[in-house]
Amino acid sequence: MNAPAAITAARTHPPSAWSLSGVVDALCAANEDLLHGKHRKEGRRALPSREVLTGVVSGLRAALFPWHFGTADVSEQGLVYYVGRTLDASLTALERQVHVGLLFDCGHDADPCEACARRATAVTRELAARLPAIRALLGRDARAAYEGDPAATSPDETVFSYAGMTAITYHRIAHELHGLGVPLIPRMISELAHAATGIDIHPGAQIGPRFFIDHGTGVVIGETCVIGEHVRLYQGVTLGAKSFPSDERGNPIKGIPRHPIIEDDVVIYAGATVLGRITVGHGSSIGGNVWLTHSVPPGSQIAQARPREEVFSDGAGI
Q1: Which of 166, 186, 198, 222 has the CB geometry, 3.0–4.6 Å to 259, for a possible disulfide?
Q2: Is the distance from CB of 220 to CB of 200 less than 8 angstroms?
């Protein structure tokens, strides 16, 4: 039997052919274990949709950069209509996803919860109001990418094709939602960027203007990082935590500052690892593959120790 015929034949089997009753029950029970406590309430089981959020972020990016990510036939005359229509559709979908996320995290007894519905609307409206400021930041990021990469031919090229610009676009949206106290959604957006670019930025990270990630794959930026203005990172850089303080039960204490502070005008080259709540002073340069766990003052030039070459003979060096 050829492959298409085999697939067709497989589709004709009744569900009972697979003896799925026990498997279905076990899978459903496993998911009940995850949805514990308040999340088991009727109507609270739904989770935000990764597929819908992918469309939301795509739409918001098209509204932020309509000439780059809008439809090919957008005209000067139709620009206002296109941006307005795209924003309306994207924000409407986002409001629903925020509402679902709030319901999942909700401690209220009312069902449906009107407080969550009102908050979802307010949060979405606030994000919409912040989009011009986000666009201004992204414009400065694009300019920094162009100025920081001799291979870039224009800021437009960086917007269109640079993984770092994609990651920071997603991050700046997710960061605002994180700051507005939205559960689940910001981290889901950051993971969409992670999957698309290989760049992992926690939505809680504070990142200043003119930020540029060159190449990008393998970059990790932790939740409590604070990054100043005009900072440049290369591939494989980790801005992480050195340790995770634990509570009396041995569980990591969440939310405490544990990631680096990177001041203005810092360059961190490929493969460098900067760990802990330390400060890299402004104007510093951290060389490739450096492992840094202590603060360094402004203007520091940190590099790996140079390998020493020696010639041994007659048993020397043993």
Answers
A1: 222
A2: yes
CB 38 within 8 A of CB 44: yes
Q: What CATH number does domain 42-199 carry, 3.40.1490.10, 3.60.9.10, 1.20.120.430, 1.10.3130.10?
A: 1.10.3130.10
Residue 296 tokens, joined: 């360094």
Domain boundaries for CATH 1.10.3130.10 within the chain: 42-199
Report the pLDDT averaged over residues 247-272: 92
Structure tokens at 92: 């409407």
Q: b/e per residue, 50-77, with b = 16+ CB within 10 A?
A: eeebeebbebbbbbbbbeebbeeebeee
The CATH code that applies to domain 218-305 is 2.160.10.10
pLDDT at 167 over 90: yes
Q: Where do the CATH 2.160.10.10 domains begin and end in the chain? A: 218-305
Q: What is the band of 188 on the pLDDT scale with cuts at 50, 70, 90?
A: very high
Dihedral sign (CA 87, 88, 93, 95): positive
CB 3 within 8 A of CB 11: no
The pLDDT score that the predictor gives to residue 45 is: 57
